[in-house]
Amino acid sequence: MSNNLTNINHCKNCGFQIDNYSFCPACGAKKITKRITFKNLTQEFSDRFLNLDNSFIRTFIQLFTKPKYVIDGYIHGVRKRYINVFSYFAISLTIASLYTFVLGKYKDTIFSNVFTDASQIEVSKVASDLSFDYQSLISFLTIPFLAFISRIVFFNYKKYNLTEHFVIHLYAYSHITMVISFITLPLLLGLKNIFLILWIQFPVSIIYIAYVLKSLYNLSLKKIVIKTLLFSLIMAVLFIIFSIISGIIMIKMGLIPTREPATI
């Protein structure tokens, strides 16, 4: 069977005439003239994800080395050099889902190693099941929460508005989620101590966000330390309030077992 398709005169994505073009001048889509084969499928995968010149690898590396170039560039219209913020978020969710899938296979052992009380183990399993089931929603709702806190902390700076803080934290959250997933999964499976991993995740996330904001706002070390402490304080207070409300709702819904009062 021939791999050639019929002659392509119009872009399959937007309909623009592309007789003499390899890429559509209107939308930038590549002109496809051959059928899908295993060879060109693996080549496309290699070009997109394994080539050091592609936008994903460039974005991933420079969110470590030059986060201001990536995030501030995107905010001000640089959209081809780096991967789109929502695409980057989608990739991070995929990696986090794989992390969650593997973690779910070992959660019984992990919680048994941490807790001795059966009710504590049961509560932890219920909470983890809910977080696994609604992971994407929780992740997406976390971003406006962080953006709101960030805008409060930087109320005296007019450089970025609330929506732009959303973009900042969408990039930062996606990036640190991927990095932490790669780092902590082997540790979690080896140590089987979820609290130790949480103690690693939280400070690493806060430090990275502080690093990104320091870069974007050109702050001194002293100023970013003060802003980070304020950010952490506000987040801790809101998290405690959210946890209490969530616990009450879970009890009311019967998701968390309650102990019966002792009878005499």
Q: Any descriptors?
A:
mainly alpha; 2 domains
- Rg: 23 Å
Helix content bin? 55-70%
- H/I helix tally: 9
Strand residues, percent: under 5%
Summing up helix and strand content along with how strands pair, one would put the structural category as mainly alpha
Largest sheet: none
The dominant shape is: globular
User: What is the mean pLDDT?
Assistant: 77
Structural account:
- With 264 residues, the protein is mostly helical.
- The protein folds into two domains: 1-35, no CATH class; 83-252, no CATH class.
- The protein is built from nine helices and no strands.
- The chain has helices at 38-50, 55-65, 67-75, 85-114, 118-133, 135-153, 162-191, 194-217, 221-252.
- The longest helix has 32 residues, at 221-252.
- It is globular, with a radius of gyration of 23 Å.
- The termini are far apart.
- The model has no long low-confidence stretch (mean pLDDT 77).
Summary, kept brief:
Helices cover 70% and strands 0% of the residues. It has 264 residues and is an all-alpha fold.
Sequence-ordered SSE layout with sheet pairings:
Blueprint: H1 38-50, H2 55-65, H3 67-75, H4 85-114, H5 118-133, H6 135-153, H7 162-191, H8 194-217, H9 221-252
